[in-house]
Amino acid sequence: MKSLEIYVHIPFCVKKCNYCDFLSAPATKEERREYVESLCRQIRSYREASRDYRVVSVFVGGGTPSILEGEQITEIFRAVRETFSIEEGVEITIEMNPGTVSAEKLEAYRAAGINRLSIGLQSADNEELRTLGRIHTFEDFLGTYRMARAAGFGNINVDLISAVPGQTVESFADTLRRTAALSPEHISAYSLIIEEGTPFFALYGDGACGHGGEYPPLPDEDSERQMYYDTKRILGEYGYHRYEISNYAKPGYECRHNLGYWNRTEYLGFGDGAASLMDHRRWVSGGQPEELSREDEMEEFMFLGLRKTAGVSKTAFGKEFGVPVEMVYEKVLADMAGRHLLVQDGDVIRLTERGLDVSNYVMSEFLL
Fold first, then answer.
1. Could you tell me if 200 and 337 lie in one domain?
2. In a domain, 200, yes or no
3. What is the CATH classification number for the domain harbouring 81?
């Protein structure tokens, strides 16, 4: 049976954060109930298509999935298990935000088979959290984290954001240390991107600077770069290793679901706006499938695989596409190696530290 990942999108939240451009919004209890019923019907509609697959990971994201009642999460996983063959020891993750979690919900998650939590902290500084538009404080996060440990969860990720308005190199270093001191198994650390259509874009996009000082300024480029370097250094002091551009883990706790994306494992997305990749086709829920060309898949193999610090395998490329990687990318590989942005180490092609620093540029060079 072929490996398959499942992503379930819950597009609801208490309120929209100032930086968020994900498909999410507040909703009534009735709207949430109707959505879950529709979601379960969508999942069950894949009973025939699922016969050749076994599910190797499940990720429930949002939005804020923990806004749902425990019974609603139970209903969703009942539909998943009735429809798909689930691999033993499968990694099952749910995202949650402090302020939306209870002991009863955590008990329901455990009963549903969820074994990994991803908690959105973003910052340990309460003023930075207010600027981001978060609904919680650092103290709220601590309560949720301790509640999750008490409920028996032994695999927890914490999300952090750097380059937040008003943030300093010192305050982000403090967030890193206060988070790592709690010893979660995994930490994701992303740099803030100002996206169109968000409140932050009106404040900081296209050269704006916080409405003439009414809002705190963004950190300057030197500070943002220092936060990036400090992330690896500080988390390394606490035993975390960087296995992908923005992700750090204790040994053995790398996120299997995310690694599946970067390794181009097939996946099915359920819910509004969720994407799927199966049988050389990609589509968004409710949309028409797009046939991927051989060149599309070669590009993705390289620029997704190079996100991993372990890099990509030449042998795997050859098996997937029937040609040596050098035949397709000889010039790019030579150019990037000559500029010390990647190295070829036996069967492996991977980015150097310098290459990781400018990864967006390097990966763009692999477009055919």
1. no
2. yes
3. 3.20.20.70
Q: Cis before residue 273, ω within 30 degrees of 0? A: no
State phi, psi for 116 to the nearest 5 degrees. Answer: -145, 135
Spatial distance between the Cα atoms of 210 and 1, rounded to a whole number of angstroms: 53
* Same domain, yes or no: 186 and 316: no
Helix (H, G, I), strand (E, B) or coil at 11: coil
- Split into its structural domains, the chain has a count of 2
Residue ending a domain, among 261, 276, 306, is 261
Convert the pLDDT of each residue in 131-166 to its tens digit: 999 999 999 999 999 999 999 999 999 999 999 999
Domain interval for residue 307: 293-368
Q: What is the pLDDT of residue 17?
A: 92
Tokens of 78: 């009942």
The H-or-E segment that residue 6 falls in is strand 2-10
- The predicted pLDDT at position 348 comes to 98
In whole angstroms, what is the distance from residue 217 CA to residue 241 CA?
Answer: 31
pLDDT at 182: 98
pLDDT for 254 equals: 98
Looking at the structure, do residues 210 and 303 belong to the same domain, yes or no?
no
For residues 172 and 158, give the distance between their C-alpha atoms in angstroms, rounded to a whole number: 14
Per the domain annotation, does 94 fall within a domain? yes
Residue 212: predicted pLDDT:
56
pLDDT at 366 over 70: yes
Nearest CA to 135 among 186, 108, 166, 97?
97
| Region of residue 54 (left: phi > 0; alpha: psi -120 to 50; beta: else) | beta
Domain CATH code at residue 337: 1.10.10.920
Give the DSSP letter string of 184-248: -SEEEEEE----TTSHHHHHHGGG--HHHHTSPPPPPHHHHHHHHHHHHHHHHHTT-EEEETTEE
Mean pLDDT of all residues in 263-271: 97
Does the pLDDT of residue 10 top 90, yes or no? yes
The answer to whether residues 132 and 196 belong to one domain is: yes
- Give, as one character, the DSSP assignment of residue 44: H
